[in-house]
Design goal:
The complex is a heterodimer of chains A (about 80) and B (about 180). Chain A has one domain. Chain A is built from three helices and no strands. The longest helix of chain A has 24 residues. In chain A, about 35% of the residues are buried. Chain B is mainly α. Chain B has a single domain, classed as Up-down Bundle (Four Helix Bundle (Hemerythrin (Met), subunit A)). Helix content of chain B is about 85%, strand content about 0%. The chains are: A mainly alpha (about 80), B mainly alpha (about 180). The interface between A and B is large, with 40 and 45 residues. Chain B: InterPro entries: Cyt_c/ubiquinol_Oxase_su3 (IPR024791), Cyt_c_oxidase-like_su3 (IPR000298), Cyt_c_oxidase_su3-like_sf (IPR035973), Cyt_c_oxidase_su3_a-hlx (IPR013833).
Chain lengths: ~80, ~180
């Protein structure tokens, strides 16, 4: 994907996150939506900004693995708090 | 540098998990004080960091095309976005300090201040790296065939961006 389009997608997702906060949304659906949004944003930063899209899977998986680990732990902790 | 970046990411992972699990035992406190944060500045700073990352990608594309001056200019523009981030974050911190908020105010603010300050220091480190790489681009150290330093410096900057992409929704919005 063109880098400008990636940037635009990331900005749109950021504005949606800001809007969800301003609108006062909360609860499990917001948590799931935000985690999905962060995963998409993180994926594009790792693949297209860091330039790991074309490199060996084991290297890409290290950073993607970090993202999945962090989001999984947040999901677990928020599940415990609900 | 990649080892360093992965080590930094692991430290932030521990920070994020600690925040989330501390919240699970203090949900009402975290939800209440989260509402006192400035989401406008948080979102603006996200867009600023993303734009800085875009500029740094364009710097890498420029040096791959052998255009060292353009590469230097995009790197400086990226560092400029870092400076803008620091100014807005400084305004946010000053407001909190003016209201007497400190690390000892409560558990939420302890996490908010320490997490965002730790990230703040990484933005400064990223700007120093971008500035150094820009200088080396200016003095002709990089070319279309030899530009590992530009790519490595860029990766550090994207790491700083990646961490904020998690931090903003988690600390400012998610409840």
């Amino acid at each position: 994907m063109k880098v400008w389009l990636v940037w635009l997608l990331l900005v749109v997702l950021t504005l949606l996150t800001w809007w969800a906060g301003q609108a006062g949304y909360h609860g499990q659906w917001l948590v799931l939506a935000l985690l999905a949004s962060v995963f998409i944003k993180g994926h594009f930063v790792i693949a297209d900004f860091m330039g790991l899209r074309g490199v060996a899977v084991r290297w890409r998986m290290l950073v993607h693995g970090w993202l999945v680990l962090v989001l999984g732990l947040i999901l677990l902790a928020y599940g415990l708090g609900m | 540098m990649w080892f360093f970046i992965l080590a930094e990411l692991l430290v932030f992972a521990v920070f994020f998990a600690s925040y989330a699990f501390a919240r699970s035992g203090n949900v009402e406190l975290f939800n209440h004080y989260q509402q006192t944060l400035n989401r406008d500045i948080g979102a603006a700073n996200t867009v600023i960091l993303l734009t800085g990352s875009l500029f740094v990608v364009l710097a890498v594309q420029a040096i791959k095309a052998g255009r060292a001056v353009l590469c230097r200019n995009w790197l400086l523009a990226g560092a400029g976005m870092g400076l803008l981030f620091l100014i807005l974050k400084g305004i946010e911190f000053a407001d909190k300090f003016a209201h007497g908020i400190s690390l000892s105010t409560n558990t939420f603010y302890m996490f908010y201040l320490s997490l965002t300050f730790f990230h703040f220091m990484h933005v400064i480190m990223g700007m120093i790296i971008l500035g150094t790489v820009a200088w080396k681009a200016h003095t002709g150290d990089y070319s279309a065939t030899q530009h590992t330093g530009v790519e490595t410096g860029a990766s550090y900057w994207h790491m700083v961006d990646l961490v904020w992409i998690v931090l903003f929704p988690l600390v400012y919005v998610m409840r």
